[in-house]
């Protein structure tokens, strides 16, 4: 084995029967007992990949909601010190990070935000939400695997239930029926899995054109790419000679263009959904870099604890 990296109308009775079958398959995950017609609503913040400034400081109430807390008893405070919050704030690369952070801010200001504003003007909000739901649904396998690796079998079962429901009656994930059936679980990634097994986060990193990471989380981000079978069964950026793919391995240009277009669409779509949330944050924060770093490290520490 070698690895090479590179870049309508629906019958109501039939719909009910399909939903009933899906519920039977996922009873082990503790799904809801009744089906509610889903309302069009924005996906939770943790379900989005986020734009360049994905972890820009947001209102405390928003950050609390992003972590799925029902009450704002312990909201994120991006201005609290790391010692007050019980996590390590290790940023030896701060001089370089601040330069990359400023670069990302300018790209967001002059490129991403204007494009997202135009996209938001053209694209109806329900469609934007559907696109975000679709991309989230496509990342099912890494979330499922990381739940299993952390011994969270109930969470793994819920992920299977979400995928079955949203992929079938949810039209490939565009409609989030599963959330209306109370099939919700915190998102798990390989960075959290490493933290679960006691791996330290390492230095804080600001990556060009991406959200902030720690060394541990950036490693987890790369591993999650490998864990997603789309990247070796459908759009092979990871080539396994013994396993065929929908698009043959030799069509590297086609694969790269599709993946690039999909990623740009996802980033622009998420930035469009976040236009109001990010509005005014920069003006209201004196030290935006420190606030973003604090909010990110605090969010990751809490995610691993959970």
What does this protein look like?
The chain is mostly helical and 306 residues long. The chain has one domain. The chain is built from 15 helices and two strands. A two-stranded antiparallel sheet has the order 1-2. α1 packs antiparallel against α7, α6 (140-149) packs antiparallel against α7 and α9 crosses α10 (215-227). The protein starts with 11 loop residues before the first helix and ends with a helix.
Q: What is the beta-strand fraction?
A: under 5%
Q: How many runs of DSSP E, i.e. beta strands? A: 2
Measured as a percent range, the helix fraction is: 55-70%
Give me the secondary-structure category.
mainly alpha
Described by its quaternary structure, the protein is single chain
For the record, the count of structural domains works out to: 1
Instruction: Give the overall silhouette.
Output: globular
**Please, what is the average pLDDT?**
80
In brief:
With 306 residues, this protein is an all-alpha fold.
Draw up the topology in text.
Blueprint: H1 12-25, H2 60-66, H3 82-85, H4 94-122, H5 125-138, H6 140-149, H7 153-168, H8 177-180, H9 190-196, E1 204-206, E2 212-214, H10 215-227, H11 230-234, H12 252-273, H13 275-278, H14 281-284, H15 288-305
Antiparallel strand pairs: 1-2
List keywords for this structure.
single chain, 56% helix, 2% strand, disordered N terminus, 15 helices, two-stranded antiparallel sheet, 2 strands, 306 residues
